[in-house]
Automatic annotation (TrEMBL):
Source organism of this protein record: Ornatilinea apprima
Gene symbol of the encoding locus: greA
GO molecular function: DNA binding; RNA polymerase binding; translation elongation factor activity
Keywords, comma-separated and alphabetical: DNA-binding, Elongation factor, Protein biosynthesis, Transcription, Transcription regulation
PANTHER family: TRANSCRIPTION ELONGATION FACTOR GREA (PTHR30437:SF4)
Keyword DNA-binding: yes
Residue stretches making up the Transcription elongation factor GreA/GreB C-terminal domain: 83-156
Protein name from the UniProt record: Transcription elongation factor GreA
Domain of life the protein comes from: Bacteria
Family that this chain belongs to: Belongs to the GreA/GreB family.
Entry keyword annotation includes Transcription regulation: yes
Function: Necessary for efficient RNA polymerase transcription elongation past template-encoded arresting sites. The arresting sites in DNA have the property of trapping a certain fraction of elongating RNA polymerases that pass through, resulting in locked ternary complexes. Cleavage of the nascent transcript by cleavage factors such as GreA or GreB allows the resumption of elongation from the new 3'terminus. GreA releases sequences of 2 to 3 nucleotides.
BP term (GO), one: DNA-templated transcription elongation
Domain Transcription elongation factor GreA/GreB N-terminal: 6-76
Amino acid sequence: MMTLVNYLTAEGAARLQEELAELKGPRREDLATRLRIAIEQGDLSENADYIAAKEEQGFLEGRIQELENILANTKIIDEMEQDKNIVGIGDHVTIQEDDYEPETYYLVGPKEADPRNGRISHESPIGRALIGHRVGEAVEVDTPGGKVIFKIMEIN
């Protein structure tokens, strides 16, 4: 099975590590306590507290496993060597469509994408189209709304 690299900023990796520590520590301990209390109540087949806690335990352990896999295969964007003449992951790219106001996006990995806050995945249609292009180039992007042409104004 091929392992996918997860591109994260240092802040994004730190957030995921904090979440993992919280889940493996206090959250797991709290859940274990709830399970012990539910077990002490007797008949487990009709014990709603026990059933809910077991269900939550499944989600908790699944998220822990997911975070461990993400962090084990992470490449920190901030530490990557960047060629500021060509759009790449970790760049802030200012683009403009026709006569609209220019927009600046930070190209990040999918785990940190937040388009409303200017963070787009390098795997998104716009991100994929921008990668490898230079300032001044026009890039055609297939979006859900149709084809759009953006001009690359600046790479930081």
